[in-house]
User: What shape does this take?
Amino acid sequence: MSSEPVIDIQQLTKKYGEFTALHELTLQVPAGHVLGLIGPNGAGKTTAIRILAGLLRPTSGTAIIAGADCVKRARDIKRLIGYMPDRFGSYDNMRVHEYLDFFGAAFGIPRRRRMTRIEEVMETAGVTYMRDKFVESLSHGMAQRVGVARTLLHDPRVIILDEPANGLDPQARIEIRELILKLARLGKTLLVTSHILPELARVCDTVAIMTHGRLRAFGTVDQIGHQVSQRRTMEAQLLGADKVALAAEIIRKGLEADAEVTESPAEAIVRFRTAQTEERLGQVLVELVKAGVPITQFRELQTDLEEAFMTFAYANPNAGNGQMATAGSGAARG
Amino acid sequence: MVKWRLLDRGRPVANPIIQRELVGILRERRTFVALSLLSFVFALTVAVRWPTEPRMALSGSRSVEVFRLFMLGLLGALHLLLPVFPATSLVRERNRGTLGLLLNTPLGLWKIYSGKLLAVFGLASLMLFVSLPAAAACYALGGIPLISGLGGCYLILLLTALELCAMSLLVSSSATTTDAAIRGAYGLILGLSLLTMVPHALFVGSGGTTEVVADWLRCLSPLSALSQLLGSGDVASHGMTSPNGVPARFIALSCAVTLICSIWTISRLRFSMFDRSRSSGTVVDDQSLQVRAVRRVLFIVDPGRRSRAMSWFVNPVMIKEFRCRKFGRLHWLLRLVAACAVLALALAILTTTRTIAWDVATIGGILVVLQVALLVLITPSLAAGLICTELESGGWVLLQMTPMSAIRILWGKLLSVILTLALVLCATLPGYVVIVFIDPGQRGQIERVVLCLVITAGFATLSTAAIGSLFRQTAMAIATAYSFLIGLCTLPLLVWLGRDAPFGHDTVETALIINPIAATLSVIRFPGFRDYDLIPGHWWVIGVMSAASLILLVVQTIRLSRPR
Assistant: This one.
């Protein structure tokens, strides 16, 4: 897997009159990575995606995909990316096979090669069984998968999926998630937007959180979690509830004065939030064991992506950009 | 029992739908534009014909002439502007899901229906109301009886408006898309107003039941009733005046049609109208040999077969356009072409057998009128939605993401329309061949007629496509394109109806120069159009308008396909 950035966005800004839809977005995504772009409505996600797809002209800044400028070489960009907008764009009276045949022909794929390619993408997207169905009669989940098949037809290097899991039932969501992972395994670079954050957390290597046209956080889910909260949430699972109070007391003594310690006798768990180092936490665990507290698990809880999203989404819109988590797989500045 | 009434500033509202619909319609920009345009045209008509000299004819002939044109223009305006509102009313509500909400309210079906009908009828009444000052001016000039003249005409117009609304709502209740509803409504209304007069024109004086049926049939058309009230004589009766009152028959028939359409529409307003099963996507290739054989006979080109991949030499957008059009599949095109060929040959056979004592020019004229009517009916529905349907459905973005240039996309789309129209025109050529065979002296004229038709088809395609590219909603685009094309083909004919009085030869000729029907009829020397020399002036005008439309279309397509 190459570490060269396939998507390179520098100081990208889009203004509509006085309104700034996108403010100096800087972002790099290496080849073969899955970037999740999240943010509330009006955050600038779709604006950024549409600039990358060559559908919008930025006010300033550059967006380069695989060495091609999205503005200056808009026609080349079309062959480099596969874009699935949030609207399916169905045509009446067309069967799935005809629909894919049309887009294959539009991309100039020769007839024989096109036939093979359609079978391949239908297989990849899991839509082979619906090849004869009419496009307008497909359910939303089916249509999304046909949409993904369409984006794969010309074998693009970068795939951009705008809200692929929106409006899908849990089963269809799982299928789309698996499909995204499958595409990632094929070596494609993916840019996915979604409101369904647990889905993104499971499939994305890197996540970018945007609000009010600005990039607020960028990095892996773990890095963003740490950025949101400097304190870690830890959990000590006991064998029974009888020594929960004792365990809580030992933990309080071992941590800083303002550490939050919560007892949950019903679950036989003691949870605490602390900024202590790994060494100090190790000493606390030793003290618990010495005191005869039957500990079965002593672990750190991962910060939820939803929690991170809510932290940034409801942050002061006029505040400057927070310090970005430096992802090992990419870089960003907003 | 809960008394269900909405209150509006303390006053009870009998039917909330009337208020919502009527206010909704009046808030629309197109309504304002239509009403303003009508008021302006009416004021202009009266201003142009207002006497400038202190003397005036006691007979009031001038005011009758103006009034005649004025009323026919009003009837035309009702036909052009009104159907779009009721035609989109029910289908749009159903597609948005609000019809289901309405059916869930305690409002009865009759109340829902009457609310919609009366709201659009309210708009029609407003259109007629803005014409009252001009009508009053005509009346003040003298020569027009108050009750039988002014009152009678307005009664016919009101009943026509109600009938058009009821028919359009019926179409709207069965259509699946707004553009299909508009197409259906305009087609039905055109059929009611014009085609119902054709049997009478063919069989007048023949006697027997056929003539009686044809006589009653033409009474369905408001044009017949209004023409008789205005003293223009019976339309298409070759000077023979019907002994029975056409207006009285029209009143009875229009009430009956309105009632039938209303009951029919109300009977459709049920939850069952939402029950549309999804197609299973069965392909004939997977069925038994017997089924395939039967379908082969029925369809010739079976639409249920698995289609082959597009060839490298065709424009994929053109194939896509054919495939995703309901009537674009080859079996439908074959049926259309066959129907056109049969009709053209039937007319030619009528000439050769002399079943009807018409000369070749008359038969050729009927062929021309039918062809232009077909072009007017088909072209806007094909061409007006070429761009805006893509914009509306989200398909334009997908097309933009392909490496095809805007010009190639546009060419593919235009080609799909041009080929369809070419097939239709070619299917009618055998009729002309027969005419040339009967009267070889007509060859030159027939060649010019065919050229006129080709130019008309090109103009209709380019102009309606250009109009459609300015809109983002297919329904609005198609309605505007229909209004433009029908207006272009009918309004100059109103001036022609007023030939000699009040309009002179030069005025009529100038008005007719933009009219494709008149130009073609003048070429074929059809009675009434022989005196006007419209070619090549008409070709120049239409050519310039086509070029302007093409430029607009290309600019608009390039603009839409570029990054914004």
